[in-house]
Amino acid sequence: MFVTKNQKPLTVYLALITWFALILQFILMITNAGDIGITPLTAATRFFGYFTILSNTGVALCLTFPLFKEDHFFSKATTQSAMVVYILIVGIVYNTILRHIWDPKGAAKLADELLHVAIPVLYTLYWMSYIPKDTLTSTHPFRWLLFPAVYLVYALLRGFTEGFWAYPFINVKESGAAKVALNSAGLLIVFFIVGCGVVFIGRGKSAFTKQKKE
């Protein structure tokens, strides 16, 4: 997928917002590392331990690569549709489960709202308006489970080896293995349901557009 002339200004704008939010969050983690008793290097490695960061990075890449290269992995409509699933889950989980855990101020509040609210909403609307959806099939929700499943293994390994648990609902030390297994299964089910919803909406919108053109 290549960005059209009319689509380009919005794509650039959203890409800049997403990269800004990621860079701001990275700087905040580095500068505040000492406050939680870790080194800036440890903070930098932990930055990439959050599903939020990885998903927003994916969104940034899906907005950036189509500006320059049509046949790249991050330019594919199916990749961009997968990213909608991931970034929607970021928004849903944060705003229903995690928001009450902390109360950021200032720049931290700005980064928090951009990564967990603004970008999920804006990218979803962007996908609805501009991304081709006629290649989506019923198998895609199953394929899209790979990334969260791999992330879960990665996050658990970091927890066991480093004592760094990115999210409380996967903290085996605090919640126990059985509870974390239940939480993980529940999250994967949510990923699947949202994935099915994205395919259903995407194919429905694609069919409506074709019918309208005819």
Could you characterize the architecture of this molecule?
- The chain is mainly alpha-helical and 214 residues long.
- The protein has one domain.
- The protein contains 9 helices and no strands.
- The protein has helices at 8-31, 40-47, 51-64, 77-98, 106-130, 140-143, 146-162, 172-175, 177-213.
- The chain is globular and about 50 Å long.
- The model has no long low-confidence stretch (mean pLDDT 93).
Structural class, judged by helices and strands? mainly alpha
Count helical runs.
9
**Proportion in helices:** over 70%
Q: Report the strand count.
A: 0
Low-confidence segments, ≥5 residues, pLDDT <50? none
Main β sheet profile? none
Return the domain count: 1
- How widely separated are the two ends? 23 Å
Cα gyration radius (Å): 18 Å
Strand content: under 5%
Provide the residue-averaged pLDDT. 93
Anisotropy-based shape: globular
Order of helices and strands: HHHHHHHHH
Oligomer: single chain
